[in-house]
Amino acid sequence: MSDLTPHERFLLEKTEIAIKDGLQLEHWRRDPNRKIDLHEVNLNRPYKLQNKAWGYFADVTINNQELTALGCLQEVEFGKIDAPNPEELLQDFVLNHFLNSAHWTYPDGHPGGFTFEQLLYRAADGTIGRYSPAEKPVIRDWPEIGTKYQWSLFTVFLHDFVLKLGPITQHLKEAATLVQHPDFIHIGTNPKPGYKYEVAFGYPFIDFAPIPNNFGFGPGKFNWAIKTFSFLLRDNNEIRCDMDFVAGARPKKVFDFGKGIPCPLYGTSDALEKLTFGLKKSQPFHNFMDLNMATQHGRVHQALMEGSAKVFAEWLAKSRA
Questions:
Q1: How far apart are CA 244 and CA 237, in angstroms?
Q2: What is the bridge-based pairing of β-strands 37-40 and 65-80?
Q3: 3-state helix, strand, coil in the chain (%, to 5)
Q4: What is the pLDDT of residues 25-40, one digit of tens each?
Q5: Domain spans of the chain?
Q6: Rounded Cα gap, residues 302 and 89, in angstroms
Q7: Does the predicted TM-score (pTM) go above 0.85?
Q8: Which of these, 85, 83, 37, lies nearest to 60 by C-alpha position?
Q9: Fewer Cβ atoms within 10 Å of its own Cβ: the N or the C terminal residue of the chain?
Q10: Is the CA virtual torsion 115, 211, 169, 249 positive or negative?
Q11: Pick from 86, 73, 128: which is nearest to 237 by CA?
């Protein structure tokens, strides 16, 4: 495609980097022997779906460099399939409906879930293309990735990025740009004891913030990152969704107000360590704040699961009608 804008060329370059780094992260994530330092976190919100969440620290190797990482691991009870051919139904929903149906409006009028804007793609023959306006709001079905497309780039708008400070609730407009790639799709039988089927997908993040923000580590502010969803079908046809997010390098700032301006939180804690000649260590505060960032990520995706579980139940009822 010869008429790419400078911004599209920038996105194209970032996409290729994200795929290369993301595939290394995906290989590490699926390694049963990987080592992570888990810390159970409290999402501190009322939820209907049974769930567990952990923040974690880890070291990962990307391009032969050992780098620090921050992650969030979640387990969510998603529902049950009470119908014939549960494996087929789960695969159909996850790969063809889950993300594109993951949006709703709450009683207070605020939108929830995810909405999308498709940007660029690399077709199976290697050509780069731009999505038309009519194609932008709906991302590709996953079975098309690896067949019709080598990859597809899209922006996700996160409607449940909500901060609560005492009585104040702030709905923030946040977004990230992600890549669909076939090597993040995993379908198989007997993934672990008690489970008979797995349908999983994920995506790497590109290092770009579609909506500028003042976070030092947040949507669009990762050097590299991936997010994965693994839907696991139990022998009794109950479904658990395991979500994993890993990003890095570990945060150097909580808030980023520009080059040369220290983070008011990490800058203060680091200065305090120097002033006390190391008696007051800064690292425990870094760990505490990093885990709070992982917790916020967990809240956004627990809200996604809460709404999507209702969508799934309605979809399943229609499929049996």
A1: 22
A2: unpaired
A3: 30, 35, 35
A4: 999 999 999 999 999 9
A5: 6-320
A6: 22
A7: yes
A8: 37
A9: C
A10: positive
A11: 86
